[in-house]
Amino acid sequence: MALTSAVKGFVKLSLEEKIKILTEFSDLNEEDLNLLKKYRELPDFLELENNIGPFKIATNFLVNGKDYFVPMELEEPSVVAAASRIAKLVRVEGGFKGEYIDSKMIGQLQLLDVKNTKEAKENLLKEKEEILKIANESNKIIFELGGGARDLEVREVETERGKNLILHLIVDTLDAMGANVVNTMLEAITPIATEITGGRYCLRIISNFADKRIVSVTGKIKIENIAIGKYSGEEVVNGILDAYALAKTDIYRASTHNKGCMNGMDAVTLATGNDWRAIEAGVHSYAARNKYTSITELKVEGGYLEGKIEIPMAIASIGGATNSKKARLALKILRVKNAKELGIVVASVGLANNLGALSALGSEGIQKGHMRIHKEFVKLGK
Ligand code: MEV
Fold first, then answer.
1. Is residue 2 included in any domain, yes or no?
2. What's the structural domain count of the chain?
3. Which of 68, 76, 153, 242 is the most buried (most CB within 10 A)?
4. Can you give the CATH number for the domain in which 226 is found?
């Protein structure tokens, strides 16, 4: 019989049964099976750089005057080392400073076959209070906690299949990421929206281009402090500025530059049980809102290298997988009180990783650090 991955009811099988199927499918041997069982206990690449339980821990983070150990979940120890190195240099200048510029999610309701879109748009806006009321009734908990649907925007969008009327529901989802809250609200307001517009609906889904949930973080480093090996602080900073200038104008570089920021940010969002794919999508679409460019801004002023990161950060401290044991542990290590605080820490990590990567790239290159870690890995494996 041909091997297949389409096993009916696979999800309901016991772990043993699943492993048995996988063993046959992928021809796993005794060694593979032992590895599967206890891979968490094995000396591994994952073990390097402050590995504690499922996390690697970044140190030195001082953000808005509060100290943080930052749990990360990723395979690459140099990301943790780089973030900790930069956080150490930033903390002596007072640490990272951050805030949310705005903190609302957007849900999209796609309306089609609307005869007079201009008139329908006006009518939707006229009924705004009623629509918001219906949205808020669909999720009383978030409303009673002080969040909820706050506003409506209506856009006319021309597509290859004709004109769409797109209703944006603007929702304060408080400490939740918001997808469930927003999607439920969108489904609840669909009947009134179709009645008002005379159209039919298609999509009712959150937008990951969360340009109303923006976090902004700054941090500075004294130029002389960022020296690396034989490279003076000034030389390193020159390298950083050259690298940054290229990221601002060249998409091939901007993509990698931004990936360097995401390295650490994804790792913290993963550790805390957050939807890191949503955050990635938000960050890259925000980077491309005009023309794809760097998500950080870097400059030299008064003897300091100053950095800023401004990105959508739809992160949660409650709900979904943030309730898993591992994520609760990560949140406890972080000592964060709410989603905004977490988002500011995550963005600080992103800025630290960017400065870490550029300072190495703009001086001795990144391979030296990588090779040191690689050697440690090989040693561990023996
Ligand atoms: C590698 O994971 C990340 C870097 O490529 C980031 C960058 O080039 O800025 C080093």
1. no
2. 2
3. 68
4. 3.90.770.10
Q: Tell me, yes or no, whether 5 lies in a domain.
A: no
- In short, whether 282's Cβ falls inside 6 Å of ligand 1 is no
110/187 Cα distance (integer angstroms): 11
Q: Which of 156, 172, 206 is the last residue of a domain?
A: 206
Q: Are residues 230 and 201 in the same domain?
A: no
The answer as to whether 79 is a domain residue is: yes
pLDDT of 49 higher than 80: no
Residue to mutate, 72, 78, 259, ligand 1, most ligand atoms under 8 Å from C-beta: 259
Name the pTM for this structure.
0.92
With a 6 Å cutoff on the Cβ, whether 357 touches ligand 1 is: yes
How many other C-beta atoms are found inside a 10 Å radius of the C-beta of residue 87?
27
State the pLDDT at residue 38: 64
The percentage of the chain sitting over the pLDDT mark of 70, rounded to a whole number, equals 93
Strands 296-301 and 304-312: antiparallel
Atom 6 of ligand 1, residue of closest alpha carbon: 260
Total length of the chain: 382
The answer to whether the beta carbons of residues 193 and 167 sit under 8 Å apart is: yes
- Whether 93 and 241 map to the same domain: the answer is yes
Residue bearing the CA closest to ligand 1, atom 2: 260
Domain endpoint, select from 142, 176, 206:
206
304-312 sheet: strands from edge to edge = 97-100, 214-222, 304-312, 296-301
Nearest to 355 by CA among 281, 302, 292, 305: 305
Range of the domain at 119: 105-206
Same domain, 325 and 353: yes
Could you give the CA distance from residue 358 to residue 262 in angstroms, rounded to a whole number? 14
- Note whether 72 and 125 are same-domain residues: no
Indicate whether 223 and 191 sit together in one domain: no
- Both 78 and 110 in a single domain? no
Q: Which whole number is the average pLDDT over 129-152?
A: 96
Q: Strand, helix or coil at 118?
A: helix
Helix/strand/coil for 99: strand
My answer on whether 29 and 77 are in the same domain is yes
Res 161 pLDDT > 80: yes
Looking at the CA of residue 78, tell me the nearest atom of ligand 1.
Answer: 2
Helices 251-271, 325-334: inter-axial angle, 10-degree rounding: 100
Can you read off the two tokens belonging to residue 353?
Answer: 């990783």
